[in-house]
Automatic annotation (TrEMBL), chain A:
Its EC number is 3.6.3.27. This is Phosphate-import ATP-binding protein PhnC. PANTHER family: AMINO ACID IMPORT ATP-BINDING PROTEIN (PTHR43166), PHOSPHONATES IMPORT ATP-BINDING PROTEIN PHNC (PTHR43166:SF6). PROSITE patterns: ABC_TRANSPORTER_1 (PS00211), ABC_TRANSPORTER_2 (PS50893). Pfam families: ABC_tran. It comes from Microbacterium oxydans. InterPro entries: AAA+_ATPase, ABC_transporter-like_ATP-bd, ABC_transporter-like_CS, ABC_transpr_PhnC, MetN_ABC_transporter-like, P-loop_NTPase.
Amino acid sequence: MTASASDALIRLDGVTKTFGTTTALKDASLEVSRGEIVVLLGLSGSGKSTLLRHLDGLEIPTAGSVEVLGAQVPSLKGRALRDLRSRVGFIFQQFELVPSLTVLENVLTGSLSGVRGPRLGLWGYSRASKLTALEHLDRVGLLDRAYQRSDTLSGGQQQRVAIARALMQKPAILLADEPVASLDPESSEQVMALIREIAADEGLTVVCSLHQVDLAISWADRIVGLRHGEVVLDTPTGDLTKSEVMEIYGRVATTTAEIRAVAEELVEAAAQVAAS
Amino acid sequence: MTALDSATDAATRGGGPVPRGGGQTVAERAPKRPISPERIAASLTLVALVVLGILAVRDVDISIPAMVQSRGNAENFMARVGGLTFPAPADLAWLIALTVGLVLVGTLLAAVLSVPIAYLAAANTTPGNGWRAAARFIGVLTRALPDVVLAMAFVLMFSLGTLPGILAIGIHSIGMISKMFADAIEQIDEGPRLAIRAAGGSKMQEFTSGILPQVLPSWVATVLHRNDINLRGSVVLGYVGVAGLGLEMSYAFKSLNYGKGLGIALVIFILCVAMEIVSSMVRGAMLGEQKHTRSWIDRILHPRLGAHASTQVERPAWAASPETAVRRPWTAQRIRHTIAGVVAVLVVIGSVLVSQINWMDLITFWAKLPEVAAKFWPPSFGNYDASAMFQAMRETVAIALAATVLTLLPSLLLGSLAARNVAPSSGARGTARLLLVGIRGIPELILAIVLVVITGLGAQAGVIALAIGGIGLLGKLIADSFEEVDRGPERALRAVGATRLQTYTSATVPQGMQALIGHSFYMLDTNIRAATILGIVGGGGVGYYLLNASQGSRYETVTAIVLMILATVLVVEGLAMWMRKVFR
């Protein structure tokens, strides 16, 4: 499963990022090759989001290099940066749909980098892009909601709209930042299955951050563990051992309640590994 | 047993102060209340302003005996009125359309100009701090220049008509509108905007697709609110030659045709109240949509909608496939939105047409500009005595202070009664709200004009007019901020057994105090601007000299007086900003 250097779509090398006095990423290196489904695993504040945001040029590293789809992301500006972003889909924890716009318009905003100038309302988009957007909506099972305001949908439905919006970009890479952290278990399962299914159909490379160990083990091809901004684990899910999970979670737990929670996670993780 | 245990033990046994830390009493051990020098300075300024205001009220000499005396004047006046008369219905309809049209066009002009200024002034969209400071300065400057002063200048540059009024409203309103627009931009959820950036959208697309949809309801509400204010203010524009109801009224009073003047005043009052009702209905409809609450009208129209919303209804026919879904279905909601949109566009087009803008003026204006501008410079008081001018400015400030102090108590009373959580009954609340709307509907200038006729020229008419007009605004602001306080402390006090009045003074007022101070300064700010204008209709102060200088074509004197007003307004504005900062 390890990437051969020539095939890598994403290449981080010694990336450090500091915000004032806090260090969010410390000398992080990572390569992801075409078609891989990678989960970034770690507690909140471990640097997962920061790492993902670097891949889309939403953050500039303090040191180190970020190469995505063959381009040095920190050096990109203007049109070139927007072109790169259009080939990288991003799914947010809080969905980040524009609440007062219809579902269809929200999906269409995914195509903005391909058109010139601002768009106000549905009539600003061509019939062809509307049709494409509706096809994506049909695929995520929300065609009949196309003309509803996006804030009238449930959380799981909103996240599916966000996936359709990302598809509208015709991305090569899909980034997802805790896509199910705000959802109930049933919707979570639907959304994660949908991402996997679409990734397989479109041959997408996926980098997704999660904090649930069991979900990560059952869903990903490869797990990258982060702790305090450092990459502390990088392994295919099949080989994941209890002690490696301990490496990610064990040392950061300080209170009794946290240690108990970690112990429970570990039991579950072991059961999962045994089952697979 | 620990030290803490023994201490509480002693306390519960009623053992009095426990000697600890070297035998000190509780009073000695209690931490000293921290004192911030800035807060003391601000409090002293506040006290000084109130005292000055009270002194000003005394100087203006509003005494009951004087009122009784002036009743004779009033009777005299009423006798001369001899009954209200109105212009012919066709003329009246035309004047109403013209007035509403030019106010609307002016407000919309300001709204359009405010968008880029607000974008530069909002902390989260500004390209740099230099841009931000410049945009905010434009806002403060345009707010400080009274629209009537601008109109005077424009009347000199354009032929008479609507254009000076439209431009004056359009420029002056930028101050308030751009500030409220920028506030709305700063309050958006950044997420959707970030999502559009992540999808490769440009800055412009981030704005139109990520920010604009979020701020639009608040922006429309701001424009409607400002439109109400501008309609009330349009009366005085007539006094300096802007066409419409105000001009007609000023002609009537100048020719001593009091019946007709008062008739037009009544029309303007009804127009203002009607506009206020229409705009609050539009605001309510928009906000209702935002919050997904259903008004009683909705409930009558679609009684079972609520039950359906959550359950999965079967797929509608249009959603059979993406091809059939490209054509947006005509739902009841879409029909409603389209009708509202078409009506709005028609109103705007109608307003532009009815204003009969002389577009040629906009072209010839630039040719005349250097010549006219040269007349305004350098500023000089001309044949006025500088000390007399400063005295007049002081009188204007005194009128504003006195009016603000007189407004405070009635506003607090009426505003409290109008707050849902304070009012003893819904009947009392309704009555108070109605009174506030009614008072807000009266344009202060009409009040002042009528009072000037009754009490004669001078500060007294100005103070009373501003004080009454202020109750409408301040009372509403107080009611709104009392309704916004946290209800928890009120419930807690009621649970303790406090009376209604005790709950009000100990829970509601302390929480609303900061807002109260902020609103009072806003009131003073507004009153200073209004007081300069009042002079134009004979309400005392510097406005009288301003009007004289402009009618006598002494432009350099106009400049000097405007600069003096500008400096005063900026000082008060700065003071108000400081107060809001300290008492936050």
